[in-house]
Design a protein that fits this description.
It is a multi-pass membrane protein. The protein is mostly helical and 255 residues long. The protein has one domain. Helices cover 71% and strands 2% of the residues. Helix 3 packs across helix 6, helix 3 packs across helix 11 and helix 8 runs antiparallel to helix 10. The longest helix is centred in the last third of the chain and has 23 residues.
Length: 255
């Protein structure tokens, strides 16, 4: 990854664009790794009406409810844990990518970076400081206007909503319950929906802009990938209210 980033930088001369291109390249390579967990999510969405029936049938017996759900998954050849290994691989790769970008934007010595490059033509000139300006940003410092941090939180909110296909159904089920406390899955989804965007914003305020640029790029990539693989999920009600749902549906159909 370090060599590819150095190659992009030598080719286009912009560290910001190089970070964006590297992030897109790595995420594209990881598409086959991510597809199994995304397809599992889509199958779970298709089974949601059956899951709702089981939830209603065994509403007073949580153990029986869980057993019936697992039996339903088994009948349809669905393993809810099948995406765990995929997520682990994804996290490892992203940590490595984060470390690479951190080397370029965290003030690492150029000679030290050069020791990790495989080819001489990729080597950086130690006498020349790498330009770290990109748009309004200094990639080695946090965004002073919090624009990147805000975008990071916003896109993560949309991503979290999109990957929660059961939020709307869960909300209806929770509303039928007087204290709304027995729907554990719904409550967890609602907490995660806002926790991750807040964390992204805090990270965006504190970390160098080069690292946050990578986070924003990978989140946008995830949004697009999720949309074309499994649809809008829980984001659909929001887009309908905003009046842009039909346009997105038309784009997906044309694709």
């Amino acid at each position: 990854m370090l060599n590819v980033l150095a190659g992009f930088y030598q080719l286009i001369g912009s560290l910001g664009l190089s970070i964006i291109l590297l992030t897109i390249l790595i995420r594209t390579i990881l598409i086959p790794v991510m597809l199994p967990s995304m397809k599992t999510m889509q199958k779970q969405r298709e089974l949601q009406p059956e899951l709702d029936k089981l939830k209603k049938k065994y509403k007073h017996d949580k153990k029986k409810q869980a057993e019936a759900q697992m039996e339903l998954f088994k009948q349809h050849g669905l393993n809810p844990a099948s995406g765990c290994l995929t997520q682990i691989v994804m996290i490892i790769v992203l940590i490595a990518l984060y470390g690479v970008i951190r080397k370029f934007t965290g003030g690492a010595d150029i000679n030290e970076i050069n020791t990790h490059l495989y080819f001489d033509f990729l080597s950086l000139d130690p006498a020349v400081q790498i330009p770290t300006r990109f748009l309004w940003l200094d990639l080695t410092k946090p965004d002073p206007y919090f624009i990147l941090a805000t975008l990071s939180g916003l896109f993560q909110l949309l991503q979290s909503k999109m990957t929660q296909p059961y939020v709307e159904e869960g909300e209806k089920a929770a509303q039928k319950t007087p204290d709304k406390k027995d729907d554990i899955a719904y409550n967890i989804q609602e907490q995660m929906l806002y926790t991750m965007p807040i964390m992204n914003f805090i990270i965006g305020v504190t970390l160098p802009a080069g690292v946050v640029l990578y986070i924003v790029t990978t989140t946008i990539f995830s949004l697009v990938q999720t949309y074309f693989v499994s649809g809008l999920g829980g984001l659909k009600p929001w887009l309908k209210k905003a009046g842009i749902y039909r346009n997105l549906a038309w784009i997906k159909k044309r694709s």
